[in-house]
């Protein structure tokens, strides 16, 4: 037995572990950003309805968010490496099937399965790094996490556009499968860890939480299609609220809850967890939706739209290093986070001011670069800081909660923003579409098509002399809808930013656990000049 343990210890490698997790975190964001760019190509190939086509993106986002907290809790129980293995296998197989699927229903289902695998990979990967590295090494590892995830966000839309335009959309998912095989080869070199005090799976908490988030997402997505006042949508939204209330009740009563509600009393923990929510409203909603605006209003190709998004995503590759420099020059973590939140709020408001049909790279550069800087200043730092304010045995649950808020807000807000754009477009079309009697389609069908990045199809059904006026009418309405969504996002970001800044006060006091403060002293999550420079 001792020889076996020695062999297992010898085979573990922090360097290989870090590379494998970073490659995983490079791959996962591309499914969020790239799938939206590939949608027009998927639609042309599968001849799917717009509603079914949108579930290629929504299915992945929904399961990714819904299973995040459950996967984090299970990772603590059964082992973080085991959960990572399960997630890698599921994601790889789902990506491979996505690359060969010819039926849109099958594609939607396997994208949902890929989201489950992604949830397992993200939560267990964060916990593996937290238990593999310590001190300054951990801070550097999570700074690398920020850069890797940023690279995935930066390259996802462009890579998807290039692959879809040249090799076809299937190559995008095939590339995911190939890269994940490299991750699978690295798994034997990872160290296993778990929460030894965990007794059993909290199935009641898992089912109620996943069910609540699933119904909320489903209701948000289907609201514009079925009608917000329809019995089905109202039933799903009410059911979501009831299941979340039941989840809170269950977690108070079970001896080993999936999520310790005492963590919610930790103000700094909650403030750090809310920072990704601001990121969602300012930055993440643009990743799948803004390329569609460029496809329609600028008549861009998928490749050109994806390349334009680099203005927003490339700064993420270097600004985590800037955060380290700011700390070296005497900035506190709170000040760095405040600068990040200001950039995010200003960036989305600035974008609302300049967005118009035919907008060029020069006008977009300012707001998009500002948004990228805002995200890069907190990327990685938030993850490391959150895991430092909880006990070591709860790192999986903490990572699960952080990423549930991150991915949950992304899934819900992207769905809500998409629904708002469809509703606003539908109202615009209802008020003026009768000026174009040559168009035979329904307003809701046209609104869905435009929001999916396709105006070429509807234009092709019109006489040549009608197309310019129809294009101007539709793109003006689409732009107005975008302005409403962007200004609403800016207002929400401003309110949340103020709240977060207030909750992060008293940097000299930091909770050691969810409910027990410690005396003032050096903060474990304080970034030093050496850790990120």
Automatic annotation (TrEMBL):
The keyword Transmembrane applies. CDD domains: MFS_MMR_MDR_like (cd17321). It is found in: Cell membrane. InterPro entries: MFS, MFS_dom, MFS_trans_sf. Keywords: Antibiotic resistance, Membrane, Transmembrane, Transmembrane helix. Residues 15-508 form the Major facilitator superfamily (MFS) profile domain. The chain crosses the membrane at residues 58-77, 84-106, 112-130, 142-164, 170-189, 201-220, 226-249, 269-290, 302-323, 335-355, 367-390, 411-429, 481-504. PROSITE patterns: MFS. Its main location: membrane. Pfam families: MFS_1. It comes from the Bacteria. It is a multi-pass membrane protein. Residues 512-533 are annotated as: Disordered. This is MFS transporter. It comes from Streptomyces hesseae.
